[in-house]
Amino acid sequence: MEESFLHLWDELDDIVCAGRHLAATAAAEVVAVAAPLLAAASGSLLAGATLLLAHRHVLNPIS
Question: pTM surpassing 0.90?
Fold first, then answer.
């Protein structure tokens, strides 16, 4: 009886460890994909802001 509970506990522990491994791997892949996209988006925003600041005299002809 004890042996079957130990075997069941061992199987449950294997399943939990496998789930933890899959979650960590998925999180690492999401971060690996998101980092270049965030860098590209922030670069685009910076370029747009620089362009607007460089041509602010055209956008605000009153002053």
Answer: no
Report d(CA 55, CA 15) in Å as an integer: 60
pLDDT (tens place) for every residue of the chain, 63 residues total: 788 889 999 999 999 999 999 999 999 999 999 999 999 999 999 999 998 888 888 777 675
Determine the Cα–Cα distance for residues 50 and 61; give it in Å rounded to an integer: 18
40, 42, 45, 51 alpha-carbon torsion, rounded to 10°: -80
Query: Which residues have a Cβ under 8 Å from the Cβ of 57 and sit 6 or more positions away?
Result: 63
Structure tokens at 45: 């925003």
Q: Give the whole-angstrom CA distance, residue 36 versus residue 43.
A: 10
